[in-house]
Each structure stands twice: as C-alpha cells, then as structure tokens.
Input
Amino acid sequence: MEAFLIYLLKSSGILFIFWLIFTSILKKDTLFKTHRLYLLGGIIISTFLPFLEFTKSVIISSPQNLIFHEVKNSISSNDSIFIINWPLILFTIYTLGVVFFSVRLLIQFISLKKILNKCITTKDGGYTIAQTNEDINPFSFFNTIVINPELYSSENYNAILIHEKTHASQKHSIDMLLVQLISIYQWVNPFVWLYKKIISQNLEFITDAESINILDDKKAYQYLLLDQTCHYYQKTSITNTFYNSLIKKRIVMLNQQKSN
Output
C-alpha cells in the first residue's frame, strides 16, 4: 500500500514535469504532430519509469569497539495507545476516487452505446457514418462518425466529415482513452486534468491543420467554426468532437506562422 502511494507520487511528479515543459516552452509552436508524440510519451514514461529502481551496494567495515546498550521501555497494561493509520486512510480515499471516475467512464461508454444504437449507419470507405436525429455535436470514436445531417448545409457537412475522418484515420481516440485512464488513477494530481485538456486541444489543432490542407479554403473553415460557437452540443469526453470551447484558440492556431 505504501509502495503504491510512493509510485503514485513519482508518477504524478513525472507527468507534472512533462506538463510544465510543454506549457512553458512548446505550446506556442505549431509542430502539433510532434506535440502529440511528446504528450503521449509523457503518459507512457510517467506510468512505467517509477518502476525502475537503481541500487548501489556499499561495503562498510564493522567498528571494533562497539558497545550496544539495550533499553527496555515498559508500558503498563492500563495504558492505551491510539495510532492513526494515515497510509490506510489516504489509500481508502484514493480508492474511492478511482471507483468514482471509473464508474463515470463506464457511464460515458453506455451513453455512447445508446447514441449509436439509435443511429442509421452507412459505410464510407473505412469509416462508419452514423446519422442521428438528435441535436448533438458531430463527433467521432475510432472509425465511427456520428452526425445529424439535417443541421448542416451540404458544404458544411462535407467539411465536418473531412474533419472527423482525420480524427478517425489518425487514431485520436487512442490518445483520448489513454489520457482518460491516467486521469483515473492519477485523479489526485491536479495537473493530470490540465494535461488531459492540452491533449484534447492539440488533437483539434492537428485535425484543423489537416482539414485546411484538404479543403484549401481556410477562410470558409474559420467561418464554419465561428458559426457553431453557440451551437448546442452533447458529447462524452472519450470522443473527438468538431466543436468545443477552444474555438478561439483553434482559429488563432490556424493563422499562426508555422514553426520551423
């Protein structure tokens, strides 16, 4: 138990270092694909590096004239000692948090399953287009894209599909699941939630840049983003969604000068 708490502390510290370097040095760059590798590397390294232990053997010669004194403390049977097991208390609180966030993730999967069950699905190459009648934000989960076609013009519909297909083709759902899992077992680390946010944000930057290259109309794409800033949407945090609260940052990054 104590060993696990020490592991958790080490893992959280390593993830904090990755977050600090990113936010202080890298976040203004437009090397989004490199950022993705860096952020995923932070998750993997913070998970496995604390298991490594480095030991050093030192031989100490025994002293010749060492006198041992044995001291015996007697405690009467009437005395009582109350000891608080803080490691057990902390581990119990931690476990309850893990259970809570695990159940929340399970509920998100169930909600996603319910949405997909109501959709009419069609195949589009290697993608599954799930058409829904609900007023929800377009999103993708692995190769499945959920969208309500009645809410968009044909031009906007095609632009959204290109965006979500980019999420699907680059397997961004893996990133989201990994950061969901690490946020469950590191929920006590406040920086894990910030780390989760920058991963989601960077995936949108990647997809926006790729979509612009395909559509070849940056201005129209930005208008599409702005047009939906007030659009009602519903999503789960395990999916990649087209619209989110980072619209302003996404537009800024689209116009940012590319980093060398």
